[in-house]
Every structure is written in C-alpha cells, then in structure tokens.
Amino acid sequence: xLEIGSQINEVRTDGDLDVLRRDLDYFTMIGLEAAEIxxxxxxxxxxxxxxxTRTKKIRKILRxxxxxxxxxxxxxxxxxxxxxxxxxxxxxQASMEFAGAIGAGIVVYHAGRPISEEAFLDVPHTELxxxxxxxxxxLEAERLQKMADAFPDITICVENAxxxxxxxxxxxxEELDKLHAQIKMINxxxxxxxxxxxxxxxxxxxxxxxxxxxxxxxxxxxGHVHIHDNFGDAVYYGEKQQTHQLPFGRGDSHMxxxxxxxxxxxxxxxxxxxxxxxxxxxxxxxxxxxxxxxxKNLKEILAPxxxxxxxxxxx
Length: 315
Prior knowledge:
Blueprint: E1 4-7, H1 10-13, H2 17-30, E2 34-37, E3 45-46, E4 49-50, H3 52-62, E5 68-72, H4 85-102, E6 106-110, H5 130-150, E7 155-159, H6 176-186, E8 191-196, H7 197-207, H8 211-218, E9 222-227, H9 242-245, H10 264-268, E10 279-281, H11 291-314
Parallel strand pairs: 1-2, 1-10, 2-5, 5-6, 6-7, 7-8, 8-9, 9-10
Antiparallel strand pairs: 3-4
C-alpha cells in the first residue's frame, strides 16, 4: 500500500468543522492519499460517549474526499487507568465506534502509562517494581483483547512513546522491544504497533539502543507509521513552545520530514519489504504550511523502496 497521508491536527481544528474541510481540501490539492482523524479534535466524543449527530456531520464531510482514513484516539486515553477505568474504556469504545462510522480501519492508541499523562510530570519519578508494572501491562492487554474482539474489522495500533528526561521510563512503550513483547502477549491479529519514528529516534538516543535493529526485530508487528522529524534530544521544558526548543534541537518537535536528523532510509529499510500500511505525517500545527515540502521529502525517501518492490513483483 504505502500511501502517504497527514494527521488532521486537533490543535488546529479545535472543534471547527470548517477547518477540517479546508485542511482536507489542501491535502487533496497537494496529492495526499490519506488523513488521520482525531475525534477529540472535532468534538465527536463527549464524556465518554460518541456524539452521533456530530459524527454524521463529520462523516458527510469525509465522504466528499477520496482519502483513506485512520483515527487517532485521544492522547490521555489509558487502559492502565484504575481510578476512572470505566470512563477510559468508554472513550476507547467511542473512538472505535467513530472509526467504524467513518470507514477507518485503524485506530491509534498511546501505550498505557502507570501515571496519567496529565499528572505524571507533577509526580516525583519512582520506577514501579517489576511485579506492579507487569500487572498493569496484563490489565491493559486484557482490555485491548476485549476491545479487539468487539471490533474485529478495526485494527488497534499501539503507539510507541517518547522519553521524558528526568521522568523516564514512565511507559513501557518507550522501548520498542517491550512494546513488541506486549503486542505478542495480546495475541490478536488486529492489535499491532503504530510505529512513531520521531518517538523511536528520541528513545533510541535516550536509552542507547539502535533504532535500525529495533525496527528489524519488531517489524512483524508494525501495522501503522507516524513520521515526523527531530534532533533526538529528549530534554523537556515548555514542550509546546517550539520557538525556544528549536534553536537547541530539543524535544518532540514533530517537524516536517527532512528538517531534522532522523535516518529514515536506514530505519525504514528494515521493514518496507513487508509493510503494507500508511505513512501518516504528524506535524505540529505551526508547520502546517510545510506539509507539501514534507511530502516531497518523504516521497524521495520512499521512491527507491517502491521501485525495488515493483521489481520484485515483476519477477
């Protein structure tokens, strides 16, 4: 497949369906083939419930475009959550229902965290004992199994996390081998990895592992790809203030492809002989005007792999 798309940025849309339509018009104009839709950026989920009227309006807009759609569930969604477990499960189910309603085959979910995404930076970091972390991973696995069984036509792709200097490891998904092991433990054909290449590169630098080897060893589980660029530095401060981060090459910058130093060709070379999914460019809203330039750079990276695949198919 190897179609290229872009996320609909939830910060950019902020619930405005006119912005959704304008961005989809632009994506179509520059030749994108897919779009990743955030239900939380379009006010489609409210207090754990799918707003069906709102979803119908969104679906009507999406049907005007010949694009492949995937869905990104809300970032704070956490299947390791205990205190508000029922609400998180409801939000996950609503995300899956939304995907079904718009005809999306992929739902991206961030790997579970022992401490909620909103709270962990305010909590003094203490690494959980192995037994407690294992119990939480088993809890997440059980919940993912149930969700996968309830929606067999939708693939849940669990996204690898980026590190937070001074707080990591806060999530097993920061290290790709651990996420791969979790996917194998879940053992469902429709639960796979969403490989975020920006997060991977930062984690590889932080934990001192080889991202090329990591992708090679996990490639059988990869079902979806997010692609954006950075300089690999996991330093965290004022994360959203890119004007202060960028001069020092810090943080999870979500820049256009080619603006940073991630060795995309070497990493992707480990999986593109068997990968059949989408490439979703996941740029921060401030880089929206560079989406076309990012697409051009990504096409140049993928071109030799596509030629090689065509050559093999002929033989």
